[in-house]
Protein 1
Amino acid sequence: MSLPVPSPEAVVVVTGASSGIGAELARQLAALGHDVALVARREDRLQELAEEIRAGHEVQVTVHASDLRERAAREALLGAIASSGRHVAGLANNAGYGSTGRAWELDLEVEEGQIELNIEALHHLTLAVVPEMVRRRAGAVLNVASGAAFQPMPGMATYAATKAFVQSFSEALHAELAGTGVSVTTLCPGPVDTEFTEVAGIDESRFPGLLKVSAEEVAEQGVRGMLTGKRSVIPGTPNQALALAGRYTPRSVVLPVLKRQTLS
Ligand SMILES: NC(=O)c1ccc[n+]([C@@H]2O[C@H](COP(=O)([O-])OP(=O)(O)OC[C@H]3O[C@@H](n4cnc5c(N)ncnc54)[C@H](OP(=O)(O)O)[C@@H]3O)[C@@H](O)[C@H]2O)c1
């Protein structure tokens, strides 16, 4: 069944809902009638979005200001949902960030934070909600990876490695869950105009415009993936071609090309 029909006892959790793709996911899930739990650190942004969604749709919206790098914050989030008497019917693990430069020259805390958020938080939240979804024989997890998952990326070494983890873990789980009514979809966007670029220090002029897909379109394809239980979603035909190239081109070719693109 994947993402079940909306119910007052159920909630769909969206992490990283204070901007970009996550805010769009929350809007679109609410438009389908789902109650949504919005999670990120910037509470003012979440409250603003919650107001906007409540004004447009007859759904319940809760706001959870959490630093998901912290295990205790994740447990508090899960605890708050459980004590509200609701279960998680859908989870969009979207919160994430990147960094650009030679990994050993970057701030170690910023590098480690990517492992804590992009990997540990996603892994924890996924495995925390899937057992109940399996008991109910319905539920959908959307794990946001990236085009960076398909090959190592000199200049974004930590980020690409975290997204390779997301992809490998999520695709394996998708196969493990076959026949249970629960799905895990991996969303692999290429470049999207969001705050991500600024946070990661990416020079946007290095990405050809034709690779760009809007946050709305990426979210729409992600939500469709949750509804249909798709294993993997790569928005945009050029990004699908690049993903294939990243996966199958010999590393001896792909590594110097990406190094030149990101670090020169
Ligand atoms: N934009 C792209 O080009 C692109 C391409 C491929 C994949 N992606 C992936 O798409 C996902 C969404 O990114 P985006 O493009 O929408 O970027 P964004 O606009 O920067 O959004 C990132 C979200 O993550 C949240 N976040 C960051 N650190 C957090 C923490 N410690 N705890 C809780 N939430 C945290 C941010 O909220 P707060 O700062 O309020 O906490 C924000 O809501 C990420 O996983 C990213 O890796 C993006």
Protein 2
Amino acid sequence: MTAYTIRTFRFPDDYAAVYDLWAHAGPGIQLRVSDEPEEIAKKVAHDPDLFIVAETPEGEIIGAVMAGFDGRRGLIYHLAVAEPHRGQGIGKALMDEIEARLRAKGCLRAYLMVVPGHDDVLAFYHNLGWEDLPVITLAKNLTD
Ligand SMILES: CC(C)(COP(=O)(O)OP(=O)(O)OC[C@H]1O[C@@H](n2cnc3c(N)ncnc32)[C@H](O)[C@@H]1OP(=O)(O)O)[C@@H](O)C(=O)NCCC(=O)NCCS
């Protein structure tokens, strides 16, 4: 079993390790301009406590997840556990902690998005009490 603790993400010190974790997490995590350092700096300035990592006693970051809260709904993004450490409850522990932090802010309901075709990860979320929603998600770049 991997020994680890969960703590708040520190910017910029943890950035490279977390980006590397996401980049190697497979097709379920799609990295975009919003994951560049200057954008993550904005996210951390907004709600620093809604970005957490799992860290080994040696200081290796082996898991991460972030969330946003707009005052009404929460949105959870980019959950990942490093492959050698999967299947030990670390993903669940990260979800439990980020959900607890959202709840503590008064968030009553949260969403997350899953890339189509990821039935494995759906089973993981269903196991944690998340339900499928019959909605179509739209997005628009607000860059120039
Ligand atoms: C999804 C992910 C974070 C799960 O992390 P993990 O640490 O392996 O998951 P856990 O060990 O905490 O699993 C928690 C529970 O879910 C179950 N579970 C985990 N993966 C599962 C899967 N693929 N299918 C079904 N159940 C699964 C576990 O059996 C465990 O159940 P239990 O509590 O009854 O024993 C990890 O697989 C990952 O990083 N995937 C790649 C990145 C990704 O796609 N992220 C999702 C973006 S939406």
